[in-house]
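Sequence in, structure out. Go.
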Amino acid sequence: MQLPEERRRLILDAVEREGKVLAAELATRLGASEDTVRRDLRDLDNAGLLRRVHGGALRRSAGEAPLQQRAERDAPRKAALGLALRSLVQPTDTVLIDAGSTNLALANQLDDGCAAAIVTNSPQVALALRGFQRTRIVLIGGVYSPACGAALGAQAVAEVGRIHADLCIVGVCAVHAQKGLYAADPEEALFKRAMLAASGRRAAAVLNERLLDTAPFAVGALAELDHLVLEADAPPEVLARLRDAADGPDILLANKVS
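Output:
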């Protein structure tokens, strides 16, 4: 008889290998009931390890990995992007920052007094700033998503709608010169759209592999950004396309990672 931990590991292995699994087929393979497999899929989805869908589960995309895993991946590159984003923050600003591993790297480099207030739906970002006294830290409420590392849903969107931010720094899963900005989660995409609408200046930072790519849910047009921060070694042909985009953002290059 399999232990629950062993069964869930086999489920994750199957999802990673095949991309999509059906609960009925998994039950047959594992010698377990469909109800047991469905409970496993629910628990694994809640942990952010796969995406549960009707009848089975799907592999999560790279942008959907749990926040802590994303924060540890390519940390020096994200720190360089975060430092470039830091140059956009002014002492009188109310800054709206959402969840994301690059935004968390930014938060880790901010100093007390860098802004008048920082508003976030990410508990991890708020904790990174927990010692601040001169900069007010405001945490947005809502339904917490373990995969996104953020409070999302109707409450979170409504709270953003009552804010006017001088600057928002929005995390995106993909950027395309013609198609715009994308997120991996529909609730996250709604929250990001609300951020853009509530802010006077708007910025994002992306790794090279997310350029000229798309994800499942559109956030907005590239022209909705005022600033786009890229890595120092962003491909020249991609830079040219982004710079040629109509009404495109000012592009900032981060320092080179040694």
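Check: The longest helix spans residues 4-18. The chain is about 35% helix and 20% strand.
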